[in-house]
């Protein structure tokens, strides 16, 4: 946390434009094997961490910042 994401006081999922990219807001969680996952209104987004999450961060709302050219939507079928 901290390189491209920050904790937020806001709650609830969201997507909005930022200064140089896109800002997502979701709830950060850890799986049983320690993988970071951000829940964006029911959609699970795997997060690559540069370092382990600090104590007490899991379950909080975070806002990662993404560069516009690195954002893509991919349809899928279950």
Describe the structure.
It is a single chain. Strands 1, 2, 3, 4, 5 and 6 form a six-stranded antiparallel sheet that branches. With 78 residues, the chain is an all-beta fold. It is 0% helix and 44% strand. The chain has strands at 5-7, 14-17, 21-30, 36-40, 43-47, 61-67. It is globular and about 30 Å long.
The unreliable regions are none
Roughly what percent helix? under 10%
What's the alpha carbon Rg, rounded to whole Å? 13 Å
The helix tally amounts to 0
For the biggest sheet, the summary is: 6 strands, antiparallel
Give the overall silhouette. Answer: globular
What is the number of strand segments? 6
Q: Please report which band the strand proportion falls in: under 5%, 5-15%, 15-25%, 25-35%, 35-45% or over 45%.
A: 35-45%
- The helix/strand class is mainly beta
Query: Separation of termini?
Result: 31 Å
Helix-strand topology string: EEEEEE
Residue-averaged pLDDT, rounded? 82
What's the short version?
The chain is mainly beta and 78 residues long. It has no helices and six strands. The protein has strands at residues 5-7, 14-17, 21-30, 36-40, 43-47, 61-67.
Features:
78 residues; mainly beta; six-stranded antiparallel beta sheet; 6 strands; globular
Please describe the topology of this protein.
Elements: E1 5-7, E2 14-17, E3 21-30, E4 36-40, E5 43-47, E6 61-67
Antiparallel strand pairs: 1-6, 2-3, 3-4, 3-6, 4-5
